[in-house]
TrEMBL record:
<dbReference type="InterPro" id="IPR051206">
    <property type="entry name" value="NAMLAA_amidase_2"/>
</dbReference>
<dbReference type="GO" id="GO:0071555">
    <property type="term" value="P:cell wall organization"/>
</dbReference>
<keyword id="KW-0961">Cell wall biogenesis/degradation</keyword>
<dbReference type="InterPro" id="IPR002502">
    <property type="entry name" value="Amidase_domain"/>
</dbReference>
<dbReference type="GO" id="GO:0008745">
    <property type="term" value="F:N-acetylmuramoyl-L-alanine amidase activity"/>
</dbReference>
<dbReference type="InterPro" id="IPR036505">
    <property type="entry name" value="Amidase/PGRP_sf"/>
</dbReference>
<dbReference type="GO" id="GO:0009253">
    <property type="term" value="P:peptidoglycan catabolic process"/>
</dbReference>
<protein>
    <recommendedName>
        <fullName>N-acetylmuramoyl-L-alanine amidase</fullName>
        <ecNumber>3.5.1.28</ecNumber>
    </recommendedName>
</protein>
<dbReference type="Pfam" id="PF01510">
    <property type="entry name" value="Amidase_2"/>
</dbReference>
<dbReference type="GO" id="GO:0009254">
    <property type="term" value="P:peptidoglycan turnover"/>
</dbReference>
<feature type="domain" description="N-acetylmuramoyl-L-alanine amidase">
    <location>
        <begin position="15"/>
        <end position="149"/>
    </location>
</feature>
<keyword id="KW-0378">Hydrolase</keyword>
Length: 194
């Protein structure tokens, strides 16, 4: 079973020192770190090099580096109000099952640490960008996995984790939900007219 290792050797230089408390944070923002095939270490080094951007965490299969403390404000969402109330997580863009599971475990650990659940959004919810790429269509599934881990309904690790849905599967699922919603709306109209 895969557990993640905390990597502590990197520190971002672009962030705002603050004294945020649990009451100041209500959101986790999911990012992808750009193009496929970029290495975890290079992404961490990039943020440590002072590029004018940062994230609280960089995560991939089995590894998690915290670069900014929770109390401080990482520069990640492209939206100051969002930055002030969120924790930013940079994820491996390929989004393997192992990456997905590790990100879910990290979020479950953050929520357990704080004793509360957070809203989970993609970067593009706050800024005009394609980020978080493949992760965006899987955010609901990610939240479900986090909750299952916290509730003890699944063991930590990658066993039994289904592969992420591809775009066609997501489109088909959305179409079937729309069809179901239309049927419910029609039924509601019939009931109202009865």
């Amino acid at each position: 079973m895969v557990q993640y290792t905390d990597i502590t050797e990197y520190n971002a230089t672009s962030f705002t020192e603050a004294s945020r408390t649990i009451d100041d944070i209500d959101t986790i923002v999911i990012h992808h770190w750009g193009d496929d095939n970029q290495r975890f270490e290079k992404v961490c080094e990039f943020f440590a090099g002072g590029p004018g951007t940062s994230a609280h965490f960089v995560v991939e299969s089995g590894r998690c580096a915290q670069l900014v403390e929770f109390k401080d404000i990482a520069w990640h969402a492209g939206n100051w109000a969002a930055n002030q109330r969120s924790i930013g997580i940079e994820c491996r863009p390929e989004m393997s099952n192992e990456d997905f599971e590790t990100v879910a475990q990290v979020i479950a650990d953050i929520e357990t640490y704080y004793g509360k659940s957070f809203y989970v959004h993609g970067h593009k919810d706050f800024f005009n960008t394609a980020c978080p790429g493949r992760w965006y269509d899987q955010l609901d599934r990610l939240i479900d996995r986090v909750n299952a881990i916290k509730e003890g309904k699944v063991e930590r690790g990658i066993e039994g984790v289904p592969a992420p849905l591809d775009k066609e599967e997501v489109s088909a699922l959305r179409a079937s939900w729309e069809k179901l919603q239309n049927a419910v709306d029609e039924l509601g109209k019939e009931i109202d007219n009865a």
